[in-house]
Amino acid sequence: MNLPNKLTLLRFVLTAIMVVIMGLRPPGWWHWCGLGLFLIASLTDFLDGYLARKLDLRTDFGALMDPLADKVLVCAAFILFVELGSVASWMVIVIVTRELLVTGLRVLAASRQITLAADSGGKLKTVLQIAAVILLFLGAALEESGGADSWLTLLTSLSLWAAVGLTVWSAGVYLWRNRSLYLDEK
Fold it and tell me: pTM for the complete prediction?
């Protein structure tokens, strides 16, 4: 297994650790720890793609599992913030639904020996979602240690709305571009 694929698998492990820590909620530092784990996991997303391209280590495993690891990381974080009351559940339902639709389309394509890589809209959507989660963690951590500023609350809200909007848009584009996979069923 090459290094980019190992980084992809590491993202799954870091996500699981983040979920456990956020679930346990140890007093005084759990948001900071969650933020740190999320940042490291997000960095592995950048690194695995960069290394795969730079070193020509692209694999079918990476093309399928890298976006899946991103989805698991981001969806897990958003679900944790629904539980904490920081994000509206409908926003997370929209995000999770998009991720399941796109993953289902990728599985359908793979069953036909077609690999669907992430497009630029999907990558931008992921960046916006990651930014929103980072701001959510940061706001929660600052509030836990004395209070977050109103500018951070506003920025977090704007990033959430932008992430949800781009999530819906990118789903439509992705489903439209690949419609032959599900419209030409016999």
Answer: 0.89
